[in-house]
Amino acid sequence: MYRYIVFDVETPNRYNARMSAIGISVIEDGAITKEFFSYVDPETFFDPFNTQLTGIDEATVAGAPTFPQLWERIEPVMSSGILVAHNAVFDLAVLRHCLQDYGIRWKDTVLYCCTVQMGRKLVPGISHKLNVMCGYYGISLNHHQADSDSHACAEILLKYLQAGAQEKDHIRTYRFAQC
What's the CATH code of the domain at 26? Predict the structure, then answer.
């Protein structure tokens, strides 16, 4: 079994180019072994829609690390396995924008899995929104909270693997455009 780094980001505005929070759940040997959460000072404005959705605003992130400060702490974890997210292309794109905006060079490509794409193949015929899948599997969720979303996504991935999903069939490559 692979080591999975399941993550979820929240964004401050409609541009989805910065993060205001990140949750990370690490899966090793078929279990969640580590979890991490941090608010992130996006150094940009908050849209009312995003604040209403996530509950995160300027006051929430006051004193939180900026992305470069946070990246120093989470990069070793993010580099240590296959990245996983629910609608992974969104979260990976936010990560890519943050890296580019701050001139941080990381990897040219990363391996990833998307639990939405996996679910469409493994559990066809239903909606694959995170809250719907959590209801289907009886997983607790405080939706649009990065720590809860990453934990729920990790639980969904474990359900798929326990049901016999072949990991190699769902691993993709995401290409980061470099600075």
Answer: 3.30.420.10
